[in-house]
Amino acid sequence: MATQEFPPRFSQGFRCESRDAAEIAAAIDAAFDYRGDVTLLLDDGSELHGFLGNRSWKAAEPFVELFVAGVTAPRRLPVHKITGLVFSGKDTASGRSWETWLKKYRGKVEAQARGEAVEAVGLFPEPLDESPAV
Amino acid sequence: MWAVASYVIGKKIRGEKKYPLVLMLEPLFRCNLACAGCGKIQYPAHVLKRELTPEECFRAADECGAPIVSIPGGEPLMHSRIVEIVEGLVARKKYVYLCTNAILLKEKLHEFRPSKFLTFSVHMDGLREEHDFAVCREGVYDIAVEAIQLALARGFRVTTNTTLFEGVNPERIRMFFDEMSALKVEGMMLSPGYSYSKAPDQEHFLRRSRTRQLFAQILSYPRRAWRFNQSPLFLEFLMGHRDYQCTPWGNPTYNVFGWQKPCYLLQEGYASTFEELMKDTAWDQYGTGRNEKCADCMVHCGYEASAVDDTFGSLGGFLTTVRATIFGIRPKVKRPRATSRVPFSHDALLDPPDPVTHPVTLQKELPVLGRQAS
Question: A interface mutation test: which of B30, B46, B53 has the most A CBs within 10 A?
Fold first, then answer.
């Protein structure tokens, strides 16, 4: 019987540094699915932080596109320059908002049943930080 | 209807097999709701703040050439230049469907001008209790209804769009159609929810057989007052009366990342131009039986284009559409006579019956509204 990997391999904090192109490619694909920022480790020793919004393996020179906060156009980087990735930003898809909502809603229904005065309940998006829009 | 018909017929005459019908233009991902069934808005703040410029939107519309532009999101009314975008698309004679939860509609309505090319498509997932539950916030239904009434009073075209999930009561959805019809919305649009892998709620997406059961029960013997702003063949597809393969290129999607491959629901990569999207996407890898991610999908953005193509692709399809348009969609499930309104139940939302052990069936004792065939 298959066992579920826990914590999931490609979750927040995951780090991959490798000379194996296949391993880097797998990490890039996972980063494309990841709903948080990542940090790319480049072959010149520099790092680049942002959201990996696209990657292409079919291009003559395979590339990734990184959306960097405060910069309008995405940075396009050849895959061969990437030596590692870190899932450094918060995974915005990992919340438990459904459970939170059920808890709030159940709480209100139960309070109503007890005859208590209740207010409308709801979930609200997290406020965005003060960084500039692009 | 005529604009779509002439566009599709033109494509057929020119022998074009793959053509877009509706451009899904997502000018931003930011939203003022946090619905648990949505897989569109989970991004870091700096991505949520990004907006397509009007020029990028116009370029996408021109590149794609589809006669209809649907503007979902995110919540498009939160876009800082949405009025400019809509006006530019209307000037291009595109039929624009601005999909909104209507929270900001009352406040922003005065900025828009009524036009036959502009329709506000208001997101409504059922009656008050069900809708507020689906969007995870109480009070939103009432706000939306007030905004609909105001928009209609000011001469705007208004439709509703409804996504259905596991646990909905078919009879209450019929009551919801009655309420929307009483508001005199121009049409209603329906779709089963798609199981976004990123959506916080993974339990309530409909599986394929369940979708057919549910829609057959909801749509059999539709009332005369109901108007659907959809292909009747697509509705019959949802009811299980006919089968279609997906047309993923029918509703191409453009957003801040580019042209989304292959469709509105799946994100497998992005192309920088529409031409690249059409040329480089491996279309035959998507659709029913071709991809596990498509297994349960019956969503309008993939299958309504198939239904429209069927209408104009054969005499049989055309005559069936004419029949369904004049006489209504084909009834299948016999329904008992109405006795009373179906009350709202918290339990149905919080603990919906297991679809395996309690499949949707028509119960003889189940009360149904209005005149019904027996």
Answer: B46
